[in-house]
Amino acid sequence: MAKGHAYHLERTEYTDSLRDDQRKLIFRVIQTINHHQELSAPMVMSYLMGWGDTYKSHRYATIFCSSVFGALLREFPELKQRTNSRSQCGQHNHEMDSMDEEHDMVSSSSHRENDANGSIAVTEMLSEDTNHLGVASYNNAGENEERVEESTAASSTVEDAEQIVTLDTDETGRLYTKSQVTDYQFRGDGLKAYNLIDFLVNTYEVDIKKDEHKRRGRSESSSNSQSGRPLNDRVYYHLQHPKHASLVRIVRTSGHNTLANFIGFHLIPRSDDGETHAYYCACMLVLLKPWRNIHRDLRAESETWAEALETFLNNADNQIRKRIEGFQYYHECAVAAQENIQKKKAGDAVDEEDYEIEDDVENEEEEEMTEEGLTALLADQTNHREKVYAHVALAHATNAGIFTDETMTPTAHTSQLLKGVTKANDTHIRLLRLWKEEMDKAVVRQNEIGSNKDSRERGHASIVVNGEASVQPLFPQTQPTCRLNSSVHDGAETAMTPLVPSELNKDQKRAYDIISWHLRENLAGKDPPPLRMVIHGEGGTGKSKVIQTVTELFGELGAQHMLAKAAYTGVAASLINGKTTHVLCAISPRTTAKISDAARKQLQAEWTHREYLILDEYSMLGKSFLAKLSKNVSIAKQNTNSRATQESFGGISVILCGDHHQFPPVAQSKREALYWPSNAMGDNIEMQIGRSIFEEFVVVVILTEQKRVKRRNAGCAPTDFSTYPWNDASLVTPRHAVRIRWNEQAILKHCNDRGVSRLICNAEDKIKGNEQRPLTMEERYAMARSMGKNKSNGGSEWHKMLPNAVKLAVGMKVMVTTNLSTDLDLTNGARGEITEIVLHPNEPPLKGRSVVHLHYMPLYILAKMGRTRATTLPSLDEQVIPIELSSQTCRINIRGTKRHKITKTIKRTQFPMTAAYAFTDYRAQGQTIPHVIVDIAPPPSGKLSLFNLYVALSRSSGRDSIRLLRDFDDELFMGTHDAPVIEEDERLRATNHSTKNWWRQINTNI
């Protein structure tokens, strides 16, 4: 070694040069990086320490609101309120607007990963479809992870809702349900003063054995005088806690950076809603007030919830008050965001001068509130351009002789003016009770006819085998399906009656034969694959005739209990003697609502023997809605069909009938239309599922032969609108302003021609809840502004509300505006004629005037419906039905004492009807009107689509029964459909051709 290193230099040029090159390399790299991006010191440190390029300044402790509020509601069930989100004014009214759902919070508990102590965590899912679970995850101080389902239930009990619960084993090995409520309730005495939020945020849970091992190692490695920060306080659970011997709570260091993360924050109610104020106070107390016994510690027995919260806040610190303000701030932001969305939706449909930017509450200070001002406000809610558009329409009607310029006042004798108007007495009240009982019985009978209870109990159709299977009727004496009574006048469309199969044209017969073959194969026990069929055709090609003839076939074979029929709207459903899709498949208008256990059992009982579903007017169904239909039918069939969980619609056969050139799903994105191709980036999962289901319908029959049109090339003779049948014609228009003005003028004409009085029935508005008082003038103004603002912003909810006033006259045509009883054809859009008006018993004597303003709401109105499945009621003529008052709720904002918004819930009571001399094109879809006047003039805002034109002009049976009210824009008919509509036409034609070839092969093998 000495010889080898004798001449070794301490420093060499080579070593120095190498080190200098390395130094320069590092320096150049740094300069290059700085040239492209300057790095801050914290970022450099983060990279050097391997922390990545993201730094989290705070950690989050998850608080599961559903678990806490579920425990609260179990202890105080009287707090359960209707806490579902509702719009400012009637947004919740839809096809099932009579449903008033309760929003019960679901008790969910946390899920922690298995740790070293050998605890067993078992997750139990109580849900019919795990794809619809909303699961949130979090990381709590690196110790554990928790997941919870955020769900809102439409049932009346917490137990009915879908849950995810986490099970663990206690010290004795028994299973128990984990819950943050349990952890808080049995916290140690050192945390006694902590409220629920502070407990979960300022402490965290660790395993006792791990903690002791960590502290033992730290003690052994340190000197006698311990260095570093002191250990945090440890607080053990009470002995009642299932894991008191295994887990301990550690108090975080003061000034920590952990914040609360509320899962289910939307479940916390508003502070300014009078209807749910008691529940709000209870929620604040359970979150912010320390307690051990939730039933005993939150309030005294003599206190109300409001008093208990006020007493608590009097001694609370500023942090508590700030948290309460933060809870309310969420709701204020949600309302502001919703209003902003509604304003954006209005688009070009509203003039700048008609667009209200400032909130109504802020503009009330300088305005004097009087009855005259309120009347003027209500009269000025329609856009000025819409008023002009409607005025011009009425001018054209006057020029054509439909109406007259003169002020029409009935001149009949006083007794004649009030003919058919009666004040109620005990007899009327007794009869009304009797009629309601009879109508309830009729509903039961209708459901028994549809389900064919006797045949279900006694067996299926018999099968006789003589070389090949054939099917014989189960009961030769079985009556065919019930046919409806004829309409009272030509203006009401009757339900379609079946044809003899030999009378069907070629295309209709092919559709009928395919369904007949599939049904007979099913009855013969051959178990064919589910039929996925589309019967497509323009208006008047006889789609409804095919449906009713198929219905007759099921009755002849004793299999009517296997068939269900439905449509999206009540009118379309009644035309085929079916039900609405919402009622038949238990679909709530709430997008987040789940099926309760009770509803699921009822649904499964009703669908036990149903194997075929006919859906009419399928163009109205969106992709998301089709997915919901399939899901609910699958739930209904999961106990009776082995394919229910493997195939769409629970493995039953589905026949779609309609025309996709008619209106697509209303108030939804155009991408919701069934014919619109899927886009994985732009469509949600339900839309993609719905489109995938629609693509399963590969059996297509296109009907091309027109059945309505009588003369295609005949000219139009001069029309006398003062004589029958044109004096009874209805107007179809795309605008509500025209519909309203036309109906008002038609009522005046009717009263003048018949010599009867016009009765004005104002809606009854009251504050909902314990007060049940009439509105103050300020509240009436706020409600009028709310409805007017919705109109001016282009909202569509205002016309779904019960009207401010209903004009009534004996003999006038009326239309029901809500689904009263779909089983009896009293649906949204059903038409009839008033035969008698029974006034309130306290109504003052009426004087023989042409216009009478009623002081009280009438007891009921008798109307002779154009179509009903109800039996003839005692003391009434055929098809005469009593129509009672209906109720709706909406919310308004008024200014409080400190200029804060206060939300009030209003209950409006009114008759669910309107005059039926004119209606919108959307309402007319699916109906054939004997004589119709169509208005397709360019509207004042927006433009008409090809859907508007197609639906409006296809409501009649030919040129002899349709007239245009005024001129139109020729260029409207030069427009083109979206590409997906054309592609769907091509797909249907190709599939129709394939179906013909397939059916020929089937026929050769039969």
UniProtKB/TrEMBL annotation:
Its EC number is 5.6.2.3. It is an enzyme of class 5 (isomerase). It catalyses: ATP + H2O = ADP + phosphate + H(+). SUPFAM superfamilies: P-loop containing nucleoside triphosphate hydrolases. Its cofactor is Mg(2+). Residues 83-114, 140-159, 211-231 are annotated as: Disordered. InterPro entries: DNA_helicase_pif1-like_DEAD, P-loop_NTPase, PIF1_helicase. Pfam families: PIF1. One of its GO terms (molecular function) is ATP hydrolysis activity. Residues 220-229 have a biased composition (Low complexity). Keywords: ATP-binding, DNA damage, DNA recombination, DNA repair, Helicase, Hydrolase, Nucleotide-binding. Residues 504-671 form the DNA helicase Pif1-like DEAD-box helicase domain. GO terms for biological process: DNA recombination; DNA repair; telomere maintenance. Belongs to the helicase family. This is ATP-dependent DNA helicase. It comes from Bondarzewia mesenterica. The lineage of its organism: Eukaryota, Fungi, Dikarya, Basidiomycota, Agaricomycotina.
